[in-house]
Each structure stands twice: as structure tokens, then as C-alpha cells.
Amino acid sequence: MEFFCYHRDRPGSTALRMELLERHWSYMDQYEKELIARGPTFAPGGDAPSGSVHIVDLPGPAAARAFAFDEPGYQAGVYRDVLLLRWRDMLGRTMWDFPGGRTGGNRYLVLGLGAAGGAADLTVPPGRDDLIAYGPLLSDDATAWLGTAALVRAPDADTARGVLTADGYAGIEVHPWEFGGRR
Prior knowledge:
Blueprint: E1 2-9, H1 14-19, H2 21-29, E2 35-42, E3 49-57, H3 61-69, H4 72-76, E4 79-87, E5 106-114, E6 131-138, E7 145-154, H5 157-161, E8 169-176
């Protein structure tokens, strides 16, 4: 089962986050084979981290909760909250298989949280060459659509936002993002 995990940083936690970076990476190394994508998000227009994205394939919701809440940064208070939802990989690849590689161009997390009235963006949009990861956010039993998460290469945040249908969501967040990990 695939899960989308987004740890959002607590304000003022950057120093603690940096202090725990090696412990975080060592923890994630245990999940190397299960990770579909990973990497930090940043505050708009800045270099300060704002969160940490992990898309991971695990046996079930209990394993996903353990993954999210046993993470060293979470345990130490780096994060203010955690979004943890089932996810479905619509591209059938990991970020390391992205034809555009690790560098070059701006990268973004685009997170659309569902609105009442039905699901949106259930098929991969045109322009797949710039999609690093893409899929619906789902309930634990995968029966209810809750939104869509995408990692995308785009010239700017507005273009990245355009990967989702604006009126299909209660809100769309766009965060600068970059490939994470040691690879």
C-alpha cells in the first residue's frame, strides 16, 4: 500500500532539524526499497525548510503510522503536524526514475485537498514529462478520494499549480521542493 506523508515544520525548528539531519537520513535509509519519493519543501522565496515529503510503499496503515511517527524529527518536535494518507502511484515509477533527473528546473509539491462533491484529476494530466510523482490521496481503506498530491518540475509556482483542476479542490497548496536523500 502506498502512502503520502508530509511532515510540516514547526516554526523556529530549523536548527533542530539540521541537528537531526543525519539521524533522519539514517532512519530513512531503513526504508530505501520502500520509498517512491522523498525530499524537503521550502518556504516560498526562501531557503528555510518548511516540511518533509515521503511517499512510501508499506504493508498497511499501522506500518505507515509507525513510519511517520517514529521518525527522529517528529519524536524531537521538529514538526507541527503530519499529513498521512493512502496514495496511489499513477506514474508507476519512483522519483529516481524521473527522466528529468535530480537537478535542473524548479521542483514543487502540489497538494490539492478535496472538496465536497466528488473526485478530481483521477487521470494523469498531459505534460507527464514534468511529473515526478502523481496520484490521488485516499482514505485508509482506499474507498474515499481526499485529494491529489503531485511532485512536478515547472518554471514557477503558478505553472505547477496548473497541474490540478482549480475548482476541484477546497484548496491547493504549492511548496518549493527538491529531491531528498543520499542518492
